[in-house]
Every structure is written in structure tokens, then in C-alpha cells.
Design brief:
This protein is an alpha/beta fold and about 80 residues long. The protein contains 2 helices and 5 strands; from the N terminus they run αββββαβ.
Length: about 80
């Protein structure tokens, strides 16, 4: 994935956003619909956790596609 991100960063002909999940990416986790976006670094929520369910990751991804606020950026997402 690091190679793919590096290649994206070299492109000027594509609008891209790279969304990194939290450290604990839970396939069976529930959907809360509440998440926090961050930058390049691993981030923690207010409980000191780096966790996100697949369902909330998908919600964050769709929201980012619709809003488009982080073009040519890598962002991260954790459960609120």
C-alpha cells in the first residue's frame, strides 16, 4: 500500500484521496456512523483507541467521496 500511495503522490492527472483505517480494523464491528478524520499519523479517539469497524470505514469513505475535501491527501479515520 505504501508503494501505491507513493505512486499516487506522483500523479497530476488524477484526483485521489487515500483513506487509511485505524490500527484495529474490525470486520465484525458495529456501525455507529460516528468517526473522526485525521491526517497522516496514526490517531487515537478520546478513549485512547485506534479502532474502526468496516461499516464505519465505508461510511467515512462514501462521505469523503461526496464531500471531496481532501484531494491529493492521505487521511486516516477512527471511531469517535
Amino acid at each position: 500500500m505504501a508503494k501505491a500511495l507513493s505512486e499516487l503522490r506522483q500523479r497530476n492527472d488524477v484526483k485521489w484521496t487515500y483513506l487509511s483505517p485505524a490500527g484495529d480494523f474490525q470486520a465484525e464491528g458495529e456501525r455507529s456512523g460516528k468517526y473522526i478524520l485525521g491526517g497522516e499519523e496514526l490517531m487515537l479517539n478520546e478513549r485512547g483507541e485506534s479502532v474502526i469497524s468496516y461499516a464505519d470505514y465505508a461510511v467515512a469513505m462514501v462521505d469523503e467521496i461526496v464531500k471531496g475535501g481532501h484531494i491529493k491527501e492521505r487521511i486516516s479515520v477512527v471511531r469517535k
